[in-house]
Amino acid sequence: MAKSKVLVVGGTGYIGRRIVRASLDQGHTTYVLQRSEIGLDIEKLHLLLSFKKQGAHLVQGSFSDQQSLVEAVKKVDVVICTISGVHFKSHNILMQLKLVDAIKEAGNVKRFLPSEFGMDPATMEHALAPGRETFDQKMIVRKAIEDAKIPFTYVSANCFAGYFVGGLSQLETLTPPKDKVRLYGDGNVKVVFMDEDDVATYAIKAIDDPRTLNKTLYLRPPENILSQRQLVEIWEKLSGKKLEKISIPGEDFLASMKGMDYVNQAGMGHFYHIFYEGCLTNFEIGEDGEEASDLYPEVKYTRMDEYLKIFL
Fold it and tell me: What protein family does this chain belong to (predicted)?
């Protein structure tokens, strides 16, 4: 079967650049949208040019020029959008509605993967404000996709290791704490941690797979379903050093959010749902979903003990 041609929108971003590399590595003809909005951002330009050297095609386009989006989409079979949906960077989820319109007008796309790659928004109707804005907006985009009858795959990738593993899921650091670690509650709630390169590998694997058509692909490889306490214990074993553990009750965690700015409240709300409620693992995958490591056992995904070794 011929491999689909892929357009990545948001290819210079944190997950986007990995999606581009995975697409090239798996042999797909890969296009990256070069948006005029990058202006004088030379780092983004150099990244785009590095993709070109690796064999990607750069295609001009802008969210302020709808026809340019349509023309870009017409070149490919699959569109993957990875524009940012986190408050501490930029929050552009609803910009995708223009991309949905372009895909609908072009009429040739066999699969669209919108910018999700985190918690499954369909399970987050109860989420705390202001962080629930992320999930509400993703559901608006989903409705537009489905109303337009665009074939899709949603990717629920759970917790990126870069943000959640290196710092042992502490709020203020991305590297392991030296002496003490705060545990959310008893630290025993199960979480799913993913190496970001593996996220991209699984996403690209899914684009031509009929088993993932119009479904959510959940990334839940069994050895990466760990509690925060287990994550800390892995680090202690690797480093040979015991950390003082300070338990933060849920009510204290919620109380600490009061008076914080919008961005911090949004982020802490997500932490609460992950580490106190267990929102990543407290439901079974239904008939509208598939689990990535079941579908693609050939992928040798990164275990978190391997991931943490880089910090030694």
Answer: Belongs to the NmrA-type oxidoreductase family. Isoflavone reductase subfamily.
Q: List the domains of the chain with CATH numbers.
A: 5-158+195-219+284-297 (3.40.50.720)
Is omega for the bond preceding 130 within 30 degrees of 0, making it cis? Answer: yes
At 211, the amino acid letter reads: R
Catalytic residue, chosen from 104, 138, 205, 215, is 138
Neighbours of 135 (CB within 10 A): 24
Q: Quick check: 11 and 33 in contact, CB under 8 A?
A: yes
**φ, ψ (nearest 5 deg) of residue 48:** -60, -40
CA distance 184 to 169: 9
Q: 105's torsion region: left (phi>0), alpha (psi -120 to 50) or beta?
A: alpha
Is the separation of the CB atoms in 3 and 208 below 8 Å?
A: yes
Distance CA 75, CA 68 (A): 11
Largest CA distance in the chain: 58
Q: What is the DSSP letter of 289?
A: E
**Cβ atoms of 190 and 227 closer than 8 Å:** yes
CA distance 240 to 9: 43
- Provide CB contacts within 8 A for 261, sequence distance 6+: none
Whether 86 shows a pLDDT value over 90: the answer reads no
Q: Is 138 a catalytic residue?
A: yes
